[in-house]
Specification:
The chain is an alpha/beta fold. Helix content is about 40%, strand content about 15%. It has ten helices and nine strands. The strands form two sheets. The chain has a seven-stranded mixed β-sheet with strand order 5-4-1-6-8-7-9, with helices on both faces. A two-stranded antiparallel sheet has the order 2-3. Helix 8 packs across helix 9, helix 8 runs parallel beside helix 10 and helix 9 runs antiparallel to helix 10.
Length: about 300
């Protein structure tokens, strides 16, 4: 496939990812920003989850534990700035497209990256980047043509001062860019106030359940997407038709049964369907339905003694 070859709508675009995680976090007093937690997960792990589809993921920073395996790189000298860090990470990539991310994006999603990659293909630009709520460019939440990045990095490296200390605008200013507005996905945690706001936001009604399920799956090492609505319906039916404590126990047993079988989303759905049907049968019995005929028209109590 050539660099500008069209991709069928809905087809995921292959890419590599470079995550810059070695900054000094001066506005956070030098705290370990990638390791700060939002929703029980380190910021860097949230970013790595968003780019899990990357062919190669390179993190430019000192090595640290991460939720999934990555390649590691370091700019020379350490602390030489984002342009030098990007160049170091790019050495380990091979895909035609590279997603470049900072390590402090609590609300980044895989769909956001595909939107950027689609915009890149549709416009023919060198890069597609997010714009924040104020319309400002976010070059560290962006998808680029790898060849364009390498071309401009080589030109900058040939300058009298090389890449050390260069701001990103020196690189992006030479590229043809398109913008994708997304105030939420572009939100980053530069200050303690940003961190507090991010932690509050994921507890809002529209986000808290998805955030919790993602955190639990990450903690347990589970990579499984299931119909959470069906499981919630099952819990409701078990609580209503049997007893309130039946809800968590039933959903646990459904998961256990699915794990003993194929273990995929289909196995969970089938086990949930069977358990929900059972709960409805319990409800029918408790409401007096489903009585079996005893024959001879006797519908209740003990049968009459044999007259002999």
């Amino acid at each position: 496939m050539t660099d500008n070859a069209p991709v069928a709508p809905g087809t995921p675009v292959p890419y590599d990812a470079v995550v810059l995680a070695g900054g000094g976090a001066r506005r956070l007093g030098g705290a370990d920003k990638p390791g700060l937690r939002v929703g029980g997960r380190a910021l860097i792990d949230r970013v790595l989850a968003a780019c899990a589809d990357a062919g190669t993921t390179v993190v430019v920073a000192d090595r640290r534990p991460t939720a999934r395996p990555v390649c590691w790189a370091r700019e020379e000298p350490p602390g030489a700035g984002p342009v030098a860090a990007l160049e170091a990470g790019l050495r380990l990539t091979t895909a035609e497209h590279t997603v470049v991310l900072s390590a402090d994006l609590p609300f980044l999603q895989p769909a956001t990256l595909q939107r950027l990659l689609s915009a890149l293909g549709e416009t023919g630009a060198d890069g597609a980047l997010l714009a924040d709520a104020d319309g400002r460019d976010q070059p560290l939440v962006a998808a680029y043509r790898t060849a364009a990045l390498r071309r401009e990095l080589a030109a900058l490296a040939a300058g009298p001062d090389g890449l050390v200390g260069l701001p990103l605008r020196r690189l992006t200013g030479a590229l043809r860019l398109t913008r994708v507005p997304d105030p939420l996905a572009s939100f980053d945690c530069d200050t303690w106030e940003d961190l507090v706001n991010a932690r509050a936001r994921i507890r809002e009604h529209g986000h808290v359940l998805d955030e919790w399920i993602s955190a639990v799956k990450n903690e347990l090492g589970i990579d499984l997407d299931v119909d959470t609505g069906a499981l919630l319906d099952l819990a409701r039916d078990a609580a209503h038709s049997v007893a309130r404590p039946a809800a968590p126990l039933t959903t646990f047993l459904v998961g256990y049964a699915a794990a003993q079988g194929k273990g995929g989303p289909e196995a969970v759905a089938e086990a949930a369907r069977k358990a929900a049907a059972l709960a409805l049968r319990w409800e029918e019995e408790s409401n007096g339905g489903g009585k079996e005929s005893s024959g001879g028209g006797n519908s209740g109590g003990p049968s009459a003694p044999d007259a002999g």
